[in-house]
Inverse folding.
DNA sequence: CACTATAGACAGTACAACTATCGATAGTTA
DNA sequence: TAACTATCGATAGTTGTACTGTCTATAGTG
């Protein structure tokens, strides 16, 4: 197919497709002449990946380029996982996090087999520090339950990757799952908050609200 | 205190403090003359809140202004919760989500007492749609476990708010918890992923890695 | 009385993600 | 085969966001 069709199928404007090509997110098409090229299903797929990473995934173009390069490389899966993790994490300056916050995180993650450089460990310390700066209260009880939930999600993530067959499928799932998983969990969290809040404080209205959704 | 001290305590440049004032994020100081004003601890607290929302919370200035206005208002807590939820959610165009994806989400959230407009419900549908566009596979098993984890987190969130005493404390905790909770969970998820991955695939290395962190 | 610090208005910066224009050429259609 | 549309690749422009800098008149300070 030519660029206009690629653009139509993926609902992405032609100038934007060109932009992705320029930025190295999308591999060039197969040249048929000095100013013509053919694209195929792989390009369609890749554009969908790019849009998922830049949109719901919240990655910037430079970071998306890195994780795409990791998928395309033949590096082992654990390496792809590391790249995806660092990409999806808000970049936190290691030195900007104080030791006390890191110790608290380590206490919460007692028994976890993680390296000191794990992006989550650093980021969690930064978030707890910010939380304390506003809400002068110990957030450890709250955090402990987050860790419990995070373990459930992490097991689900690994299981999902295992279900894929080839190395490339697994690599793509790792990247998409890591980036979109955050957004998916955040969405379900919102829903669960309303649900828990309603059943806890207005149980008499819960049934009525349930009905409103099941019969639109 | 004067602006320079406010700036020093909060580690925020003076021009940035002025910017927050202009943008209505920070209430003006108590005027002592046409071009002098006094600030107090409430301003310090407020700047910390702003920085937490704009930094780890990932809100933009306009959205931060809305949630701060909600805290300052005397609107009831459920309303503040709603504002915070919409603020922390990636804005999704309702019509951009197709009905099939919404039905899948509703199946996953069967029995939940939530309104059809719940931001999480819409956002989850959008994310699942993006995931399917890339990874042509049913993500429902994966999602179900996310929902299970989201319930744990939502209960923790509500409990944390309940522990606060006054309406204003509760309102602030709702806002901070909603915005920073996403980042906190994402961080713990990264840590849990490495932990689960190591114990599952390289159990013999797990102990060694654990030791590396406990004895820095 | 120097000297520094405001407040507030306004302009400028830096970066990211597109979006538009252009000239030379290629494919397509009447 | 002429007219029309599409493409490539280079370059420039746009939009939006979160600051950052400059300026003037005035105020606090040693």
């Amino acid at each position: 197919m030519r660029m206009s069709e690629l653009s139509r199928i993926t609902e992405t404007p032609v100038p934007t497709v060109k932009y992705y090509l320029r930025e190295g997110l999308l591999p060039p098409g197969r040249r048929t002449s000095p100013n013509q090229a053919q694209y195929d299903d792989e390009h369609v797929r890749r554009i969908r990946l790019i849009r998922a990473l830049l949109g719901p995934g919240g990655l910037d173009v430079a970071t998306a380029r890195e994780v795409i390069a990791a998928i395309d490389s033949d590096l082992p899966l654990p390496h792809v996982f590391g790249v995806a993790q660092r990409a999806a994490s808000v970049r936190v300056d290691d030195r900007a996090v104080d030791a006390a916050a890191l110790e608290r995180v380590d206490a919460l993650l007692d028994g976890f087999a993680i390296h000191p450089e794990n992006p989550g460990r650093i980021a969690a310390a930064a978030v707890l520090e910010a939380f304390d700066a506003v809400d002068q209260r110990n957030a450890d009880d709250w955090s402990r339950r987050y860790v419990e939930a995070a373990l459930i999600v992490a097991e689900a993530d690994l299981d999902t990757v295992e279900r894929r067959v080839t190395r490339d499928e697994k690599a793509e799932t790792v990247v998409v799952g890591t980036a979109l998983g955050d957004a998916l969990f955040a969405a379900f969290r919102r829903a669960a908050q309303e649900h828990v809040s309603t059943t806890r404080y207005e149980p008499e209205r819960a049934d009525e609200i349930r009905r409103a959704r099941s019969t639109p």
User: Anything to note?
Assistant: Residues 74-214 of chain A form one domain.
